[in-house]
Amino acid sequence: MRLIRFFSGYDFLLLFLVFFLIVWSVINIYSATINEYKTLYIKQAIYGFVGIVIIFLFPLINYRKFLNFSPFIYLSGVLMLVSVIFAGTTILGAKRWISLGFFTVQPSEFMKFVLIVTVAYILGQRKDGIDNRQLLIVTGVVSVPFLLTLKQPDLGTAITLLIPVLTMLFVGGLSKKIIYGSIIIGIILSPFIWEHLADYQKKRILAFINPEADPFKSAYHILQSKIAVGSGGLTGKGFLNGTQSKLFFLPEQHTDFIFATIGEEWGFVISFLILLVYLLIGLRILYWGIKVRDIEGKYICFGAGSLILTQAFINIAMTVGFAPVVGITLPFLSYGGSSMITFSLIVGLVLSVIRVYKTEKLSFS
Length: 365
What we know:
Helices cover 70% and strands 3% of the residues. The protein has 15 helices and 3 strands.
């Protein structure tokens, strides 16, 4: 009876969907890297196992008590980002990682979890909407990691840091005047923003608009990814039989473009299933955001759900040519320990919200 009650606090649909993606990740990273990196899938399996442990154990912590440590968690995250400037490892021209010997850590990825926790804590101090003081604090809290991530340079991750925060502000009842005013200011400042983008970022945007203009350089990633996805047809070329990936035409096939590898080998049917899984995960988390009573729990669920949905959409849209290449991972599927652990922490935090809600509901029923 105790065992049944213990597990009754978990959302098994959400667990199943996330575990499916983790297992699917190891299988497809094996296929994507077997001709180049013989043991990379083993590392991903280890990251996945750690992620599963986090997802199972984190809900045992009451998220309300955990949020009380958010100032220290935020400070630790910012210090990690600052350490990248002085002791970071440069890969492909970007300094985003800290080497810890056998593996590297990307602090900007962890900031997604940190900001959800921190902003939920700040906004949760008031139960009747957001005031100007909170908005000012949140703006300052978000600006520091946003600018530090932008400096690396990593525009894609910097943008994803804003997604859960903007969603939580919207859910908290941010004034429409501020929302519309921010949009107008963004439009007015767009020429200034364009001038301050790095050259490679400008080329990626131009390649998205007209990929045929530079097919062998700035548009190479998009074109090869579209070829891979399109060549998969309805049912794909078969496991380990992808030509674009196996002959190394498709860049970053195990990280940013893992969806293209899946599309080539498994086809439209499985690709659509993957899309459906992400949609179900996001909607399931948003459902709990509507259902739970606690305001901090609501903020967590809406921030987490919006991040997973939006990041998955941007990554998949990027691989099929519907969005510029921005260099962000596909949650739970792309290779990388930092991404896997970050999204496992986020899902674990959501499950803690669900568990507390179910426990309290049983107590008062």
